[in-house]
Amino acid sequence: MKKISRNLLLSFFLLALILVPFKAQALESSYSKDIPCNKAACDLRMAQRRLWIDHVSWTRSFIVSDLSSLEDKSPVLERLLKNQDDIGNSIKPYYGEEAGNKLAALLREHIELAGQVTDAAKTGNKDALEKYNKLWYENADKIANFLSSANPNYSNKILKDMLYTHLQFVTDQVVSRLNKDWNADIKAYDKGEEHMIEFADILTDGIIKQFPQKFK
Known about the structure:
The chain is mainly α. The chain is about 80% helix and about 0% strand. It is built from 7 helices and no strands. The longest helix has 29 residues, at about 40-65.
């Protein structure tokens, strides 16, 4: 594999700086004392954490397979897309079939765009990188808008900030692997996993607050 050029790397980081808020803001977890600690609540929390950990782990597996042109790329992508359907299915008991399918579709788009961003970086196509990276962040906006419109307990801004940070951690993994900086790659993954556990907890807390009768 050819080493990614300095110019493309610079383009990648400039795009990130433009699309991610310049000033990082402390994101307080929505977890609070008024969230019940019972079996129903704990089951939901653990289920959401598992789904979103799977999201980052299978995304990583796809990045590795894609960048290295491994034979398992297609089955790994299939498993990753199943995770998006699983996440959509997880909200159907609260928001219904149509809403669950909508979230799954948005998340599938998120994965498709991640693949296009990765391929553009891999081939050094600066124009494609800029195009798909922009669409990737717009998709994050759509996901945040969808979730915050479904649940008044979700802050649209916090969700967008969380999703933008997720995209940055994925970007960091791609760039690190292209440059064979394995330590940076591992660090980005670990941070990204921890971040998505926090994101899962925000989603869980919002559901519990919106449907308290289901968690008594």
